[in-house]
Design brief:
- The complex is a heterodimer.
- Chain A is mainly α.
- Chain A is built from 14 helices and two strands.
- Chain A has a two-stranded antiparallel sheet.
- In chain A, α9 crosses α11.
- Chain A is globular, with a radius of gyration of 24 Å.
- The N and C termini of chain A lie close together (8 Å).
- Chain B contains 14 helices and no strands.
- The two termini of chain B are 28 Å apart.
- The chains are: A mainly alpha, B mainly alpha.
- Chains A and B meet through α1, α2, α4, α5 and α6 of A and α1, α2, α4, α5 and α6 of B.
- Chain B: It is a multi-pass membrane protein.
- Chain B: Belongs to the binding-protein-dependent transport system permease family.
Chain lengths: 315, 287
């Protein structure tokens, strides 16, 4: 959706050699409307990006002037810092577990709700509620208690406290994310409602099974929405912070198993005052997210189906 | 339209009952953590962990009394006020600055419109951490660390591109004839924005306002970095004090406080759920 939009407005417009007076005035008006955004984009986005790139090649503690160290932050990160790699592994594991599970659940519930006729609005809102509440510190604390030693999960499953066991703590955090499947679900539901019913009727006449209909109609017709959810959810998951902070009391434990990338970045930058190192971490994150998004966009060509490619993201 | 397919299949009555039973069962599991939170906030200290019963043997209202006394000698009212001030400022900032920028992108012609729009979209995907440290340095140099400015000021500069995009999409759906008519009546771009377009954009502005409120209210990371005096804490940040010390005796008051911190979101949700869910569906905003 996003990509086509950019294309739709990216078309260069041919303009007359000398704009007439009212036209120039309108152009001036545009810049007045745009001025807060231009200021923000320059001072709070572009300039900080350049500065953080510069800082990533320095030693900087916020009090003394930055000291140029070349690539040392990067080499240290990749070759001498086992905690860095543990944070990478924790984050990737989390993304790989949480994102597909959450999207799959969202799709299943959306499909079920599509065929529900009564109380649909109620279900939709109720399943959506955790998506809003779950991002809070309050719920993260509830999660820690439920998955702690002697908590509900321990009582029911006898597995001990998940958040105190390496290998299980990450799963508890991932479940908190999966629990918030309501947001992608609502988007799926909106997408499902756009699929013309005649397609299913025709398939029915041809004797296609429900599974066949799902694979041949629902999935292709829904693929732009699946893609949209996948990209957004992946980008967000790389940046998860609050639940890991709450579950591990800000330490990323047990045994660094919930030391997510952003938690370690916070630790290096704001606890240990290694702003240069944290900046280098931020740039690697930026590049990884950029690369993952690019790969998703590239592979999407083979499986995302747009009903009309000329209609540039009207919605 | 969506029901045509299922109507063809004529589901028998028991299937529909099973469907609802399944949905309700799933909801009970999903809403359990919320019920647990509410129940635990009213439990006496010795029952918090000891029993699986959701209901306490008696309601321990003193948990709320303790919670209202606050954390670090700062009362809950103060914390609540701080949270409201930040969230309110953010809502005002986002609604004003994002609608201004959106109008320019959606309706006006200017040089570099295409590339600038593409850049704006790209910043949606930009991880916050790439700009975090320099932003912190800037606010530090301006003497604004440990004030609310770093939390509110950026919202007045349309830094949350997602909302700009949301409003752009909405404005594109409005008929162009409206502005043409306004222009014939002698309105310049400013008057047609304020008198014609802005009132019609209300649904998108409400969605922006609601999501800004909830996101800002729930935000933890930014507040954690910029605020360190207890009297400037928000409710979310005050809960942090409980993160480190987790003795069971403090459980009741801690979750009473959690309930207080969640209450505004729940109220917002109940009041605006239609806007929330529709706004989400049409824009792809996350919770």
């Amino acid at each position: 959706m996003t990509a086509t939009d950019v294309q739709a407005t990216g078309v260069p417009r041919t303009r007359p050699a000398t704009p007439s007076r009212p036209k120039r005035r309108r152009e001036g008006a545009a810049w007045v409307f745009l001025s807060p955004w231009v200021l923000g984009a320059t001072v709070l986005t572009l300039l900080p990006m350049a500065v953080s790139l510069y800082l990533s090649f320095t030693d900087y503690d916020l009090f003394n002037p930055p000291h140029w160290v070349g690539l040392r932050n990067y080499t240290q990160m990749f070759t001498e810092d086992p905690r860095y790699w543990r944070s990478v592994v924790a984050t990737l594991t989390y993304v790989v577990i949480a994102v597909p599970l959450q999207l799959a659940l969202a799709l299943v519930v959306a499909l079920v709700l599509k065929s529900v006729r009564r109380a649909k609005g109620f279900y939709r809102s109720a399943f959506y509620a955790p998506s809003l509440l779950g991002a809070s510190m309050s719920i993260a604390l509830v999660w820690r208690a439920i998955f702690n030693d002697g908590g509900t999960v321990d009582h029911l499953l006898g597995t001990g406290g998940w958040v105190t066991r390496p290998g299980w703590a990450l799963l508890a955090v991932a479940l908190l994310t999966v629990w918030q499947f309501g947001a992608p679900m609502v988007i799926f539901l909106a997408g499902l409602q756009q699929i013309p019913g005649e397609l299913y009727e025709a398939a029915e006449v041809d004797g296609a099974s429900r599974w066949r209909q799902f694979l041949s109609i629902t999935v292709p017709m829904l693929s732009p929405v699946i893609f949209f959810n996948l990209v957004l959810q992946t980008i967000q998951s790389f940046q998860v912070f609050t639940p890991a902070f709450a579950v591990s009391a800000g330490k990323g434990g047990p045994a660094d198993s919930t030391l997510f990338y952003t938690l370690y970045l916070y630790d290096r930058g704001f606890v240990a005052s290694h702003m240069g190192y944290a900046s280098a971490m931020a740039w690697v994150l930026l590049l990884v997210i950029g690369a993952v998004t690019a790969v998703l966009f590239r592979t999407s060509r083979s499986w995302v189906f747009y009903a009309s490619d000329t209609d540039g993201g009207a919605r | 339209m969506s029901t045509t397919a299922s109507a063809l299949r004529k589901p028998v009555a028991w299937r529909r009952v099973a469907l609802h039973a399944g949905c309700v069962a799933a909801l009970l599991v999903m809403l359990y953590p919320l019920a647990w939170l509410l129940a635990t906030s009213l439990k006496p200290a010795n029952e918090v962990i000891a029993s699986l019963n959701l209901l306490p043997s008696h309601f321990e209202w003193s948990n709320y009394k303790t919670a209202f006394d606050g954390v670090n000698d700062v009362s809950v009212w103060r914390l609540l006020g701080n949270s409201l001030l930040i969230a309110g400022g953010a809502v005002l900032g986002n609604v004003i600055s994002c609608s201004l920028a959106a109008y320019a992108f959606a309706r006006l012609r200017f040089r570099f419109r295409g590339p600038l729009f593409a850049f704006m979209i790209a910043t949606i995907m930009l991880p916050h951490h790439a700009v975090l440290i320099p932003q912190y340095i800037i606010f530090n140099k301006l003497g604004m660390v440990n004030t609310y400015w770093p939390l509110i000021l950026p919202k007045f500069l349309a830094t949350e591109a997602f909302f700009v995009f949301l409003i752009v999409q909405f404005m594109r759906g409005l008929p162009r004839e409206l502005e043409e008519a306004a222009r014939i009546d002698g309105c310049g771009p400013f008057r047609s924005f304020f008198l014609v377009i802005l009132p019609l954009t209300r649904p998108a502005l409400i969605t922006t306002a609601i999501f800004t409120f909830i996101w800002t209210w729930n935000d933890f990371f930014t507040q954690l970095i910029y605020l360190f005096s207890p009297e400037k804490f928000t409710l979310t940040l005050a809960l942090r004090s409980f993160v480190d010390a987790s003795s069971t005796s403090a459980f009741g008051p801690m979750f009473a406080m959690s309930v207080i911190a969640l209450l505004p979101i729940v109220l917002f949700f109940l009041a605006f759920q239609r806007f929330l869910v529709e706004g989400m569906a049409s824009s792809g905003l996350k919770g």
